[in-house]
Design goal:
With 672 residues, the protein is mainly beta. It has 3 domains: 255 residues, Tachylectin-2, Chain A; 130 residues, no CATH class; 159 residues, Tachylectin-2, Chain A, CATH 2.115.10. The chain is built from 4 helices and 41 strands. The termini are far apart.
């Protein structure tokens, strides 16, 4: 949304001759009934649809520059932010008022779809006069981000930026602060157009402004930041409407140029190796601009089709017909890349095919069962990196990364269906090596629970920090430890087996007990060492287990891998989330890395010897990164799951039946 246009007296733009119906109670009632019925229906852009609000449109697609494809949403919607959560696509737009030439919206709506074609109006998710005390109008250009088991809705209101939160992507949302997140006139820019980008290390960045572009790292709570750390990005000819995403290790900054009221309103982009820039302007700009009957194309966002390297750009155009910079409609088009990562120019007459939100099948899954057959959720709570073990009392015990990540919480269940919390069973602070981590406010990550030799054990991690930027994760000075229940009970109390120094020098620790009762401590991306007989420490220097054959596909490696392993290292099992189990004399080394389209997956490599050599890794369980495996009383094997990619849910614990085939390949689904 840009305010560089001179606003004429809005009375000049009303149609006075049509005001008479406002004074007719009967016609007003009819109009309200029709509006409510329309808003409750699903809108489809399918030109073969026989019923619904799209049936009378004259723009039904085609190659003619005078015959535009239909808008994605009905009515007047602009500045669309498109996202994917819990197995659905969502669009969060600005709503234009069709009666006047000004951006007068006072509320926000949300639209959802399972296929990018049929869109359901989820209704008003935030109403300024009702829900906000510090602004009443200018509800513009929102965005959304998921973190901490919640959804954070960032929005412009009264030329200030606010943030609201909800447990659901479709709201309703509640003001998180009771005041603006960014105050008007607090920076050398118009304080509008927020955009939040979350990097691979789960650090989120807030971009905002019109005229000048600013960026700042958000705190972990997603509703605050260090005001002294706000930086200006001045390397691009920015006007407004920025959007940031990452593909294959490269940060893309997209933005709009020229006035919102101009037919030349268009989308440009630049790239960088850092979310702070500097950004280098691409040579083929603009990548989205007017063509034929389609004018004023801009203020975009981008979505990647889950599991594929396929992308869709959402943007607005002048309404067709009789639109302008105040009367706009939202559109979707394919966005493609060349082999060098350069964005192709978007054809505004190109339409997107219907897209299911279900992940594509892989060769390891039965095509009639889908990619994750039998997956089920355990609880509707935030929990990452879930770990499950069977206790000596025949109960199941569950732990994982909680929010806030201040300690380790444990749940128990008799049947893997109904779960009861045992509360927080341990918090850091008693071990001397924790002190510098706690001083930097570091969390507890990825605990695992194990029952070995008649008692419970908890592994845990504390992430490191960058010396120049303590809020940023640095794996090099991370640490992990091991806790023993001194009572033999899952609720503890727990003592640190090595309180004076970290047991491992990275994150993501695990335990493996071999057939001869030897116990091994694993961490990071395949580091392993045998423990002392009493499990009071490591009995040897660590070995680093790696596949003997490299995986050369760059799509199979996180953008963090070059920083961890070196630029050309392609022989790791994963960049985090290591786990080991044994079946039929074969050791299965598991790790987490990226799969096709950036999905967060479980990779596996095998060996007849615990120290290798290990086979070439393969993507065993798509979307199941940072999982672990366990067996039930019937010897059926299961994997844990939490939904890093939002498929079919986001950051909540689940379990998935898995099978080991005759070829020793692990895949999802039960044996037939």
């Amino acid at each position: 949304m840009e305010l560089s246009i001179t606003h004429q007296n809005e009375q000049q733009h009303r149609h006075f001759s049509s005001w008479w119906f406002l004074f007719s109670p009967f016609l007003w009632l009819v109009l309200m009934m029709f509006t409510n019925e329309l808003s409750a229906k699903t809108y489809s852009t399918d030109k073969n649809q026989k019923n619904g609000p799209n049936k009378d449109r004259s723009q039904t697609g085609g190659s003619s520059i005078n015959q535009a494809p239909p808008a994605a949403l009905p009515g007047l919607n602009a500045d669309p932010h498109i996202a994917f959560f819990e197995g659905k696509y969502f669009i969060y737009p600005t709503t234009d008022d069709g009666n006047i030439d000004y951006w007068s919206s006072t509320s926000f709506r949300c639209w959802s779809s399972e296929n990018l074609k049929d869109w359901k109006n989820e209704g008003i998710i935030l109403d300024l006069p009702r829900d906000i005390t510090w602004a009443k109008d200018k509800a513009w250009a929102p965005c959304i981000a998921g973190a901490n088991g919640k959804y954070y809705f960032y929005f412009s209101a009264g030329q200030q930026i606010g943030v609201a939160e909800s447990d659901r992507p479709q709201g309703p949302f509640k003001d998180a602060l009771g005041k603006p997140l960014v105050n008007k006139d607090s920076y050398d820019t118009q304080v509008i157009d927020p955009m939040v980008f979350t990097d691979d290390d789960q650090v989120s960045y807030l971009y905002f402004g019109s005229g000048n572009l600013n960026v700042v790292k958000l705190n972990c709570d997603m509703i605050s930041f260090d005001a002294s750390s706000v930086k200006k990005i001045s390397s691009v000819p920015f006007a407004e409407g920025m959007f940031v995403f990452k593909r294959r290790g490269i940060y893309y900054l997209m933005f709009s140029r020229f006035g919102t009221d101009s037919p030349d309103y268009s989308v440009w982009y630049a790239t960088s190796t850092s979310p702070f820039g500097p950004f280098i302007l691409a040579a083929n700009n603009p990548v989205l601009r007017q063509k034929g009957i389609i004018k004023g194309t801009g203020h975009n966002s981008v979505i990647q089709i889950p599991g594929r390297d396929e992308w869709v750009i959402a943007y607005h155009r002048f309404r067709i017909p009789n639109g302008n910079g105040f009367h706009r409609e939202t559109c979707l088009s394919p966005m493609r890349f060349d082999d060098n990562g350069q964005i192709h120019k978007v054809d505004v007459f190109d339409t997107i095919p219907s897209q299911t939100a279900t992940p594509p099948e892989t060769k390891l899954q039965a095509p009639d069962k889908g990619v994750l057959p039998g997956l089920r959720k355990l609880m509707d709570i935030y929990l990452r990196d879930p770990s499950i073990c069977r206790g000596g009392d025949h109960w199941w015990y569950l732990t994982g990364t909680i929010n806030p990540p201040e300690g380790i919480q444990v749940w128990k269940s008799k049947d893997l269906i109904s779960w009861e919390s045992l509360g927080i069973v341990w918090k850091p602070g008693n071990s001397p090596w924790h002190k510098p981590y706690l001083q930097q406010g570091r969390p507890i990550w990825a605990p695992e629970i194990h029952y070995i030799r008649g008692t419970f054990w908890l592994t845990y991690s504390m992430p490191g920090w960058d010396a120049n930027d303590p809020s940023r994760f640095n794996p090099a000075n991370s640490g992990c430890g091991l806790l023993k229940s001194t009572s033999g009970k899952p609720e503890g109390p727990y003592s640190d087996v090595q309180p004076d120094e970290r047991l491992g020098d990275e994150i993501d620790a695990s335990l493996f007990q071999d057939d001869d009762d030897s116990v091994y401590y694993l961490w990071h991306s395949g580091k392993i060492a045998k423990m002392k007989p009493d499990m009071s420490g490591l009995a040897e220097p660590y070995h680093w287990l790696k596949p003997a054959v490299a995986d050369p596909d760059p799509q199979h490696h996180s953008g963090l891998c070059p920083k961890i392993f070196g630029k050309d290292s392609l022989t790791h099992i994963g960049y985090e989330g290591v786990f080991m189990f044994k079946s039929n004399g074969l050791y299965y080394l598991c790790g987490s890395d990226r799969g096709e389209g950036g999905r967060y997956s479980c990779y596996i490599s095998t060996s007849r010897s615990i120290y290798g050599p290990y086979s070439k890794r393969y993507e065993a369980l798509p979307y199941c990164g940072h999982n672990m495996f366990f067996q039930d009383d019937n010897a059926h094997r299961w994997s844990t799951f939490f939904g890093q990619d939002g498929i079919p849910w986001h950051e909540q614990p689940g379990i998935l039946p898995v099978t080991i085939g005759a070829d020793n390949i692990v895949c999802s689904g039960k044996k037939k």
